[in-house]
Structure formats: C-alpha cells, structure tokens
Amino acid sequence: MENLDxxxxxxxxxxxxxGLQVMLVTVARTWGSSPRPPGSLMxxxxxxxxxxxxxxxxxxxxxxxxxxxxxxxxxxxNNLPLVLRxxxxxxxxxxxxxxxxxxxxxxxxxxxxxxRLNELLLACEQRRCVERTLDLQTGHASLQAGQYDGLPRLDxxxxxxxxxPQARIIVIGASDLSRYLCQFALSLGFAVIVCDPRExxxxxxxxxxxxxxxxxxxxxxxxxQPDNRTAVIALTHDPKLDDLALIDALxxxxxxxxxxxxRRNSQQRRERLHVHFDIPESALQSLxxxxxxxIGSKTPAExxxxxMAEIVALKNGIVQxxxxxxxxxxxxxENQPQQEMNSxxxxx
Length: 348
Description:
Elements: H1 4-17, E1 22-31, E2 41-45, E3 50-52, H2 58-70, H3 72-75, E4 82-86, H4 90-95, E5 103-110, H5 117-125, E6 130-135, E7 141-145, E8 153-154, E9 158-163, E10 168-172, H6 176-187, E11 191-195, H7 199-202, E12 210-213, H8 217-224, E13 230-234, H9 239-249, E14 256-259, H10 263-277, H11 281-284, E15 287-288, H12 300-315, H13 326-335, H14 338-347
Parallel strand pairs: 10-11, 10-13, 11-12, 13-14, 14-15
Antiparallel strand pairs: 1-2, 1-5, 2-3, 4-5, 6-7, 6-9, 8-9
C-alpha cells in the first residue's frame, strides 16, 4: 500500500494529466491542538474530489465547497498560491471542527508544470529525501536534497517543505506470523518485502501488495541497503536465515532491527553474533529481541501487533522506557504475585 504523501502526489498528477484543475493543499503551521500535523498534504480537483486530508473533515468540506462554487483559478487569484488560516476565532474553531484553541494555516497551490510534482514523486519512489521550496509570488517550486523529517517553514515569500521515502519493512521468513505482520504493515502505509529462500514456505504464501524474494537474506539486505526509513524483522526461528539478515542489518542505517524468540534464545543469538560474527556490542544494543512491546500476546496476530507497535513507536521517535519491550514486560508480569495480578484484572 502506498503511503499518503505519494498517493496524494500521484493522484494530483493523474488529475492534472486528465486536464482537470487541481489544487495541492499543505498544512504549513498549526497552533494549539490540530487534527493533522504540519506537512500534511491534500489534493482537490475541480469536481471537488479529494485525496489526503488537512483536518478532521470540516475544513475539507469548506474547501470543496469553494472549489465547486468558484473554481481553483478563482480561489487562487492569478493562479498563485494562497495562504489561509482556520480557527483563529472561537466561532471558526466551532464551525470548522477544530479542537478547542486550535489554529491551522494552509497553503493552497494550483498544480502546474512548474509545481514539479512529477520530480518530487520520482524522488520519493527512489527513496531520496527532498526539500521543496514554493515561491509564493510566482508559484514556481524548486527541489534540492534535504532531510525527511524537517518541519515546514513559511514566510511571506516562500513555503519550504520536506518529503522522503515511504517507510519500509523487510520481513525474513514467509509464515503465518509474517502474513499477519505484513497485513498490519500494509495498512500502516509501509512498503513490505518478504524474504524466504525456502521454496516450500513460499509456495503457499502470497499477499497482494507484498514483494516476495527468494534471495538469501544477507544478499537481499546488501542489495537493498536499509536506510533510516527501513525496519528489518527476522521471523524464521532458524539461525541460518535470521542471523544472515541480522549481521548486515545491524551494520546498516535501518531504524529498527528485531528478531523473535524466547529470552534465552535471544541472549544466545546476541552471544553468537558477537563471538562468531564479530558484531560489536554497540551494534547489538540496537537489536530488539524478543521483538515487540509486551501486550501478553499469544496468537500470531497478537504477536504481529506487538511487533508492529514497537516498529511504529521507533519510527515515530518514541524510545524506551515510554513503552515496554517484551523482555521487560514478561519479567514484570512473571515476578508479580498472582494475587496482585487478579486484583489488577478486577480493577480493569
């Protein structure tokens, strides 16, 4: 499944190619509570069709109404970008469904060839981070290499935004657990690659939207060169496969590297990687094993949910101890007296 930014860009380009008037809307700044963060994108065509969002829906309704009644060229006078604020007054906040005290500032931009959305989309597909500068006086955009997670900057002359590659997950092993994890990952907007050289496992494993590779895990990792928007998770329980992936993944820029297994197996894995493969302790510190957050998971689906929760937390910059890893959660649970556990359940 495509992530929302690239979906908005692709849809806007398709509409423009069909000869429709198209407006790209960017959340430039917010104050107080806001439904969507700065940098969020939405596109609207002349028929009032939309993709993406900039609020909970009420601002979208207002913009759609204006586009349908006036047209893109009339809303954006002289076909130039327009800066709009919603939620400045209590009445506006109520009218547009903004949280109490929330204000959102939007940049409305008529899409044209000089918007350079095709180049921006291509850069995202090629996993390049881009800084885009929109000249508010002319509507022309310029692109250069940038960081993925920069906050938009808006002044009277320009809007600077940052876009980059879709979050990606490399899953080692085609199994029932992998299937559930991939379904979660797809719904969360990740690009998903499953690697399993074992034909008997791949034969009955398929899921729309997932790329399945028969390469050896180390070959795949070396070919893909995981970047800081990539997670790697080993799920085979087979050291001959899992270790091959982990050796190279731990020495890459992947933001998350994990593997399933018991606490004992996880400790043995760390020792094996350190002693036999010379993986330094500093690299092993970033290995998540047993992978996942502790939710008392039992079934493959629950284990997959636990792992994806940990991956999303790391992707969003949430680090321990804000969440409880499996190894710590099990230790706490198993050491807590049963009477206390029963009381806690009753309290819930």
